[in-house]
Structures are given as C-alpha cells and as structure tokens.
Amino acid sequence: MSFTLSKNFLVIVTALASMAVAAPADLFDLAPYYPASQYAIDGSYIVRLKDGCSLQDHLNFVPGLLDLIILKLPFNLGYSAGLLDVTLNLVRQDKCVQYVEQNSGGEWLDLEAQADTEAYNSSSILESRDADAGVGYALKYLSSNVKNPADDSYFYLANSGAGVDLYIMDSGINGKAPEFEGRVTDLINRSDDPSFNDKRNHGTGVAGCAGSRTYGAAKKPNLLNVKIKTTADVVIAALGDVVNRHNSQKSVSGFKGSIINMSFRTGASQTASEALKQAFDAGIAMVAAAGNDGEDASGTFPCNSGYTTCIGSSGSDYRLAASSNRGQAVDFVASGDNVYTVANAGNAPIRQSGTSFAAPYAAGVLAVFYGYQGPNLSPSDAADLLFYNADADYIENMPADQANFMINSGFRKATGGQPYRMGL
C-alpha cells in the first residue's frame, strides 16, 4: 500500500467512525464539485472553504486530513490535497466546504528559441530621454511615433522603472547575467527544483524583455524571481506570497508599485480567480500572455480572468502572429516574434518567440508608468495609460472582434512636457 493511499485509508476509517451517528441526509448533501477543463491532475483537488469557516473547523469534521494537504492556500481560500474518490466525498460532506475543484497543470507560452547569429549593435546615446540604437524591431516599435519607423532607436526615460517591483512569476531567472545589473532578487521558489536558476530557458528571457539593460522595455525595475510550477494551487500560493510582500513594501521609502508578469497558462480555476482579485484589489497590476494556439483566448487562464491585462503577439510586419491567441479576451498586442532578449546562459542575446515574450513588454511599460507616477496609480488607471499610449489599428490582420491596439510607451507622442500621454 502506498504512503498516500495509506493516509487516505486512515482518514476514511476515522471519518466514518466519527460520522456513524450522522443522519443519512447529511451524509449525501455534498458540496459542488467542478472537474478541470484543461490540464487535469488526477487525484489532486482544491477545496474552497466557506467564509467564516476555519481550516481547523474543517479538520474537526474530517480528522486526519491534515496529512493529505499539499498546500494551505492564502486569503483563507482553503487548501489543495491529494485525495482518493471516497476521501473526496467525505470532504464534500462538510458544511464548511463551499466547493471542490480539480487541480490543474499548465504550460509556459513560448515557441522555439533561436540563438542570435546576426551582428548586434547596442551602443547608446544619452538625451533627455535615452535612446538605444540597434536594439531590434520590438523596442523600436515600442517607442515609435509612426508606423514603420525609419530610425532604429528605442527612446526611454533614464532610470525608467526604478523603485518598481516587477515580479516574474515563471521558470526562474539567470540573475547573474550582466544584463540584469544585479537587480534580480531570488524571492520565492514554489517549483519542484530547489534552484532558482532558469533551467527551462524561459523566465530569463521574459525578465529580459521586461527589464534588462539593453533589451528591456524598462531599464531599472527591481526584478523579483518567483519560480513556480504551473499548477493552479501553486499559482494561488505564489499570488499570496506576492501580495504579502507588496503590502509590506508600501511603507518602504522609494517604493513605486508592484507588477506581476504571468507568461503561462493553467486550467481555469474559480479559486485562482479569487486570488487574482485579491492581488488586483491590493493594487498590483498584472499582465498575462494570451497563448500560442492560434485560437480564441477566451479559454486561456489567467489571460481571461478579467483581472489581468492580456497580451497577444505580433511580428515585425505588423501582423498578428499566426500562433497568437486572439479575440475579445486579448486587450493589446506587442512584438513577440523573434525578439531579442537575455539567454539563460552566456552573455550573447537570444531570439525568442511567443506571447510569453510579448507580455513582458507590456509589463515593462507599466513599470515605467509606475516608476514615474508612484504607488497610488491603480491597476485600472495603469491599464488606461496603456490604452492612451497604444498604437491604434496598426495590426493589419486583426480579427474584427479583437481590439486593434499595439503596446507603445508613448515617449515620442507626449506633449506639454509629459513623458507619455496621461489621457486622450
């Protein structure tokens, strides 16, 4: 008998003994159960407790359950556990259980990476706004004031994003890369790998697009390494970690705000949606990748949650990438086809593709906004700034039901001494 099976057996025996005098109606009045729509994990469940019920109240009803709990979830949302069907039914009999949903896995939203084999020029010019010449089309488009700009420069505010905490919830970051200038903090590791390193060659590139010295939309944000595995319960737990730190940072001098970049998808989860709302209500702006299936993004979570700004991917030809998800759930697009970023090993740049690398350009621009305006900027107001500065109708093959807005920093559009547009 396996260890998990034996623990379930002990819970069943103990619970049946304690419920021997219960009325039949009580035994079969079960809390709702919702199977995973995608990436289902067999035998793994999220148990959402009702408001006003404590975990201890629940454990009193199902003695011995504590040994089966995988994660205690933040915001009093309950827990995740590995349960046999019969144990699951015992759990659902507790009046303190609001619902149970099957736990789900997920995936990173990148395509195949390519090593850079072309000459690369990263010389810089210092002006009232800095300009990096030869940084590739993605950054060039990000600060251009026209379509198909003739110059190759990216204009940005000096020290853009300084004081902003940009959480990269991903596969880890190669924080020792010179491009990050020592601004990476290994903060949270909720993956199965004890190392904070990026062994997937994903999170480092995401961080590079958001906030590296040469390739980042913002140049000086604090990059917080939140290494996760893409399961719904782990995402919920990591959101709790970030909210706790964000709240503690509010009293720190020089703190400008918090942003989370999520370049992954998991199966839809009611409990994870509640955790996203908690982060949003705490004042944290969140960006999510739309996905790379070339289909409607309405089924891509957390892109479709309503609490994130969802980003699709476009190419240098101003066309929506064939792989990019699309539709009404997608708020903006950003460059995400063969974009320069930081590799997880070595000092040479790498070219990456996918909505995973489009999303952090939006997160980086948000870091610029927060760095300039400070922590009183709400997530809703920050999303409005993305809209005010976006390039409208640039994407030539945009579906009719999708908003045709491309992320732009606004640095070459603003008037009246402002660094970017503050309104329409």
How would you describe this protein?
This protein is an alpha/beta fold. It has 2 domains: 7-104, 2-Layer Sandwich (Alpha-Beta Plaits), CATH 3.30.70.80; 108-406, 3-Layer(aba) Sandwich (Rossmann fold). The chain is built from 10 helices and 22 strands. The protein has helices at residues 3-18, 24-27, 55-61, 85-92, 137-142, 203-211, 232-249, 270-281, 355-373, 379-389; strands at 33-34, 40-49, 69-73, 78-82, 97-104, 106-108, 114-115, 124-125, 129-133, 153-157, 164-170, 184-190, 222-228, 257-262, 264-266, 285-289, 309-314, 332-335, 339-342, 349-352, 391-392, 405-406. Strands 12-13-11-14-16-17-18 form a 7-stranded parallel β-sheet, sandwiched between helices. A 5-stranded mixed β-sheet has the order 1-5-2-4-3, with helices on both faces. This is Subtilisin-like protein. One of its GO terms (biological process) is proteolysis.
